[in-house]
Amino acid sequence: MRPLIRQIQIDQAVDCLKKGGLVAMPTETVYGLAADASNDAAIRKIFAAKGRPVDHPLIVHIASAKGLTHWAIDIPDYALKLADQYWPGPMTLILKKQAHVLDSITGGQDTVGLRVPNHAVAQQLLKAFGGGLAAPSANKFGHISPTSAEHVRQHLSNVIDIILDGGNCGIGIESTIIDCTGTSPRILRPGMITLETGGHGGAAPTSRPRVSGDLASHYAPRTTTRLLSAEAIDDKLKNSQNVAVLSTRKYITHHVKLYDTRVPHRAPSIDPNISHWIVMPTDPHAYAHRLYEQLHFADSLGCQEILIEQVPDTAEWSGILDRITKASRGESCAHP
Ligand code: TXA
Ligand code: MG
Fold first, then answer.
1. Buried b (16+ CB within 10 A) or exposed e, 206-222
2. CB distance 112 to ligand 1 below 6 Å
């Protein structure tokens, strides 16, 4: 069950943000490292804490779509429809920025990324704060994004003033980013909102997911990670004794320890003679929810390699495929 955040913790977090501090904020996608979006010095602290290059722009989180016009200009009708349909939710809109939006947020571009998160604690914080919160994922640049307060603590506790624990993130991978500066929407980073499965009520025209070159940051474990076909993984297991596998199948043999993602598991003591097989959910939403949690777990096992089994190349898996491709830093044979 999600731990409750008491009002006093929200008050302390707001106070900290107003003074230019950093607060780890749970959202439905991943935990964010939040700072006051109108405070240049606070924004710079985010980049220092993450070790993030300054030309990687940040998403501004707002309490509701009513705040759109404070941050953006020239908002096309299709963007308003998307906001109406998917916010609060795991979607970021890239729009032309208002003149006051800080260059430190936009990386000097004339656009700004905006998102209304769908998490009770993020909503509580944003409403109490009253302004926008710039927040990248609360991990060191290039590493796996955090989906629990414990992940944030492990990687960034020494540089964050307050960590708000809102439990495990429901969606589990970062928001879908949609460029709304052209005549039709264009997906820059795929996520669990695909537009193709978007349901009813004036959904925007479909756009094939595309990963922009300048968004090609990684989501990588420390352990060498490969994306392989089922056959290639089975072959590897015949010869390797010390790998961790993420697969939706089960593989049963004596030197392989099996994990069910529905049951919490802790890393056993490191044993170079066994391999670890993590049985991932077959439903893409459940898979996304577990992905970073299980990558963090696999990374803690001290194995020689993490092997991720290829997932279907369909729209509903596109966000997952994007993240596991980046996690494997191109060390893949995606379609052997
Ligand atoms: O789900 C999410 O989006 C999470 C939670 C915390 O909201 N945030 C997140 O932030 O993933 P971050 O900083 O790890 O990734 C934000 C991405 C970056 O790839 C950045 O380049 C892109 O958003 N982005 C932000 N503003 C942009 C802009 N104006 N134009 C193009 N891309 C932008
Ligand atoms: Mg990130």
1. ebebebeeeeebbbbbe
2. yes
Neighbours of 2 (CB within 10 A): 13
Q: Is the CB of 111 under 6 A from ligand 1?
A: yes
Q: Which ligand is nearest to the CA of 58?
A: 1
For residue 27, the ligand closest to its alpha carbon is 1
Residues with CB under 5 A from ligand 2 (ion): 137
Q: pLDDT grade, residue 157 (50/70/90)? A: confident
Determine whether the shortest distance from the Cβ of 128 to ligand 1 is under 6 A: no
Name the residue type at position 254: H
d(CA 265, CA 123): 30
Q: Which of 192, 174, 167 is nearest to 137 (CA)?
A: 174
315 DSSP assignment? G
The predicted-structure confidence for 93-152, as pLDDT tens digits, reads as follows 999 999 999 999 999 999 999 999 999 999 999 999 999 999 999 999 989 999 999 999
User: What integer pLDDT is reported at residue 48 of this predicted model?
Assistant: 96
Q: Which pLDDT score, from 0 to 100, does residue 58 have?
A: 97
**pLDDT recorded at residue 223:** 94
DSSP state string for 69-103:
HHHEES--HHHHHHHHHH-SSSEEEEEEEPTTS-H
Predicted local distance difference test score (pLDDT) of residue 330: 55
Minimal-distance CA residue to ligand 1 atom 10 = 136
